Amino acid sequence: MTSPAQAIGELVEPLVIAAGLELWDVEVNPRAVRVLVDRPGGIDIDSLANLARTVSAELDGHDDLSPGAQYQLEVSSPGVERALRTPSHFQRYVGTEVLVKTAAPVDGTRRLQGVLLAADGDGVTIDLAGRPTQLGYEQIQKARSVLVWGPQPKRAQPKKAQRAKDAAR
């Protein structure tokens, strides 16, 4: 059985592609339909507004898909810390920090944060403090990318380079 979010996604994806965007996700609740879109290099407000008008008109013709008589349509970017739901979402974020909540504890905790090392059709591998940990998608309840603020840590200099630097002082 197709969920309302999947059905709306199938309906609006051709519109999203025609607008030169990528459908990231569709979320549906009793009061709202949220269509999340992206594009390499980011997205602008005019593209979102134009797509919102197009999607609204399409949904108006499909009352069977809407969550109720009155609902709010939101067309937006998934944001900098975005939900990761599909294997392709995870694959795009290999090499970055992620936060994962598991259905059952893994090493005594359900919240795992680390660098996403790999993702394929079966699951992911996350570096948890130097310990690669594999999770199947069925173990993952929620996941999102994590925005790391500030400068990246400096790499350690070889001892010879550090001695030369100290001698020059």
Structure description:
This protein is α+β, with helices and mostly antiparallel strands. It is 28% helix and 35% strand. The strands form two sheets. It has a five-stranded antiparallel beta sheet with strand order 7-6-5-4-8. It has a three-stranded mixed beta sheet with strand order 1-2-3, covered by helices on one side. Strand 4 (97-106) and strand 5 (109-119) form a beta hairpin. Helix 1 packs across helix 2. It is globular, with a radius of gyration of 21 Å. It starts with a helix and ends with a helix.
Give me a quick take on this structure.
The chain is an alpha+beta fold. 28% of the residues lie in helices and 35% in strands. It starts with a helix and ends with a helix.
